[in-house]
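Exercise 7.
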Amino acid sequence: MSFFKSPSFKYLKNLLIGLGASVVMIGALGKLNSTPWGGTWITAGLMVEAFLFAMLGILGPDKDYYWEKLYPGLDKYKSHIAPLTEGETSADHRGLNADIVENKLGGMLSELQSMSKSLGSLKALQEVDFSKTGDQLKTMNNFYNRMNEAMNSLNASVEDTKQYQAQMASLSKNLTSLNGVYGNILTAYNVKA
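Solution. The predicted structure, written as tokens, is:
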């Protein structure tokens, strides 16, 4: 029975299944094309497949647990591995004990809870309605453009105000000179009269 569990038997079994199926397909192709060898090939392939399926039915399926990743050497048929509770299995592999497993599981539970909270936040973000965001952006862009126009207009009016102030200062100087001339005229007129 140990031969049927060996890796070489599993490889041989898969090889025969694949080759038998390919012979059946080639025979079917020959039969479809009405070649003289098609019947022979399809018969041989079907017989090989029938034998293999009978063998698979008798032997039963293999278990695929992949425990050898946790305990190297477990995939060898006659290996002797200490039970999980006995601590060290070899010099370079540490055994499992309840405290280590509990700590690891506790850490994994904390990480899962953190991920759950993060996923809840993402779900809340998913439920936000962004359908009107485009309209709001257009409105903000329009507001920004009008604000720029107003600022440009304000800058122009500031320049106009500076020119107005300069002109008023000049007018004030001219009026002061004109008042001085008028005062001199009045004084000269009063002297003659």
